User: Which sequence fits this backbone?
């Protein structure tokens, strides 16, 4: 199956600093990547949809200036949590949709997640 | 977003069958999915079903879809301790967005 690599897997940072999370599709091209946030014992909350070469589409209630998303290539999307605060501590998961032969595939593959802890 | 609901917990004995249920509200869903999440990890796609199908079987996994009642289930035959995880159902309309349920934590007792 398709592999999505997410890095780092765990990060601890001080309040006020920025943290960048990378999401790479290793063996396929992904025109669309999704960023989710997962709270303990809760479902995944879609934060934004990232399309290669264009601006990300944010879900209602998600601050785009707080969570910067860049999808610079067909294999890489990054999420930067700017001026992180303790309430931003969470498990962040990226996912990518396989693009085969120019036609979007129905399957969604996930990275292994990043546990962010803001002190 | 669309509502996707699941029961939170299920406990079974090793060797028994597990049935995890899911209900959704969006009648225009194109695909419905089951994902598995192990502790501290991302989600692994287990199986999925197109909305015009009633059933799909893949080895120990059987997916049943009742489109009229908007009910999806995942049956795991001969459940093993390695199946212990959180299972998420999800729906998608034309792959643009995926909406997930809250997850069902499956506990398999030896």
Assistant:
């Amino acid at each position: 199956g398709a592999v999505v690599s997410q890095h780092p897997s765990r990060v601890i940072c001080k309040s006020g600093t920025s943290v960048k999370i990378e999401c790479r599709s290793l063996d396929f091209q992904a025109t669309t990547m999704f960023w989710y946030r997962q709270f303990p014992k809760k479902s995944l909350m879609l934060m934004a949809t990232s399309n290669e070469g264009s601006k990300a589409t944010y879900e209602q209630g998600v601050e785009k200036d707080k969570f910067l998303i860049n999808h610079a290539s067909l294999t890489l999307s990054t999420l930067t949590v700017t001026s992180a605060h303790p309430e931003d501590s969470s498990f962040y998961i990226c996912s990518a949709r396989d693009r085969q032969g120019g036609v979007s595939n129905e399957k969604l593959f996930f990275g292994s997640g990043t546990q962010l802890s803001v002190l | 977003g669309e509502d996707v609901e699941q029961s939170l917990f299920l406990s079974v004995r090793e060797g028994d069958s597990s049935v995890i249920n899911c209900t959704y509200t969006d009648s225009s869903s194109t695909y419905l999915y089951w994902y598995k999440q192990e502790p501290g990890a991302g989600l692994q796609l287990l199986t999925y079903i197109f909305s015009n199908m009633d059933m799909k079987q893949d080895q120990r996994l059987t997916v049943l879809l009742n489109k009229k009642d908007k009910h999806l289930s995942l049956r795991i035959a001969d459940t093993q301790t390695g199946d212990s995880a959180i299972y998420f159902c999800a729906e998608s309309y034309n792959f643009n967005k995926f909406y997930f349920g809250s997850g069902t934590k499956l506990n398999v007792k030896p």
About this structure: The mean pLDDT of chain B is 90. The CA atoms of residues 47 and 58 of chain B lie 8 Å apart. Chain B has no helices and eleven strands.
